[in-house]
Amino acid sequence: MEEKVQTIFVCSDSVGETANTVVQATIRQFNTSQVYVKRFGSMRSEEDIRNMMEEASRIGSFVVYTLVLPELREMMRQEAIRLNVISIDILGPVMQAFIDTYKDSPKKKAGLLHQMDEDYYKRVEAIEFAVKSDDGKDTSALKQAHIVLLGVSRTSKTPLSIFLAHKGYKVANYPLVPEVKPPLNLLTNNKSKLVGLTMSADQLVKIRTERLKAVGLPFGAKYSALERVVEELEYAYGMYKQLGCMVIDVTEKAIEETAGIILDAM
Q1: 116, 218, 233, 246 - which has most CB atoms within 10 Å?
Q2: Beta strand spans in the chain (E)
Q3: What is the pTM of this model?
Q4: Which residue ranges are tagged as binding site?
Q5: Separation CA 131–CA 238 (nearest Å)
C-alpha cells in the first residue's frame, strides 16, 4: 500500500527560512519519506492567513509560522481555533520573552533577517573572498582571512569555507599535499587563524572513491588508495603539530557542527 503524502505548511511574512529549518529538523526525526513542505512567504494580510488556514484544514495539515506583526499572529491563533488546525508560533514566544526580560519593544518590521544592510554586504564580500581564495589559489589572502582552513583533499575545506562565509567570516583554505611545500612563513605569521581538518582514513577512502566515480576516473587510483590516504593524513598531522594550530576531526561531522566548533574556539 502506498504511503500517504503528509503536508506541512510553513508560513511567514518574509521568506520563511527560519520556520522551514525547524520543520526540516523535525522531519528528520521520523522515518517517513512522504512529507511535503508547502511554503507561504510574504504573508502580510488577514485574508492571506485565512485562505492558507482554510487550505490547511481541507487537507489535514498543520502550520508552522513566523509572523512579526501581533495582529497577524492573533489572526493565526483565531483561525487555528475556528478551523481546528494545529499551529505553532516559532517567533512570537521568543519575542515576548525578549520584551518581558529586557523591557524593550520590537520593530514590528518583516524581513529584517534578510534585508540588504551592512551585514548583508559583509556576507557577500566574505563569500566572494572564499571563492577567490579557495584551494590555495591566492596565498596572499591568508593575511586578510579571519579563518584559514588546512587539510588534505576531500576533508570539507571548500563547503566549510562557504558556510562560514555566509556567517560573514572571510575564510581561506589551503590544501596539504606531501609533495608540495606550503607557505610556512605565511602560515606561521597567521597562526591564530589556522584550523587543521582531519578525518579517519577509512572514511576519506570512501569519499575519494566516490569522487573518482563522479568524475569518471578508474577505481583503484592512487588518490583513493588507503596507503596514500594514510600518508597524507600523517603528513597533515605533522604539519598541524609544527604550526601549533587547533585540529578538528571532521569524520561524521556535519558542516554546521564543525563550523560551530571553530567559532566557539575563536
Answers
A1: 233
A2: 6-12, 35-40, 62-66, 87-89, 147-151, 171-175, 194-198, 246-249
A3: 0.72
A4: 151-158
A5: 27
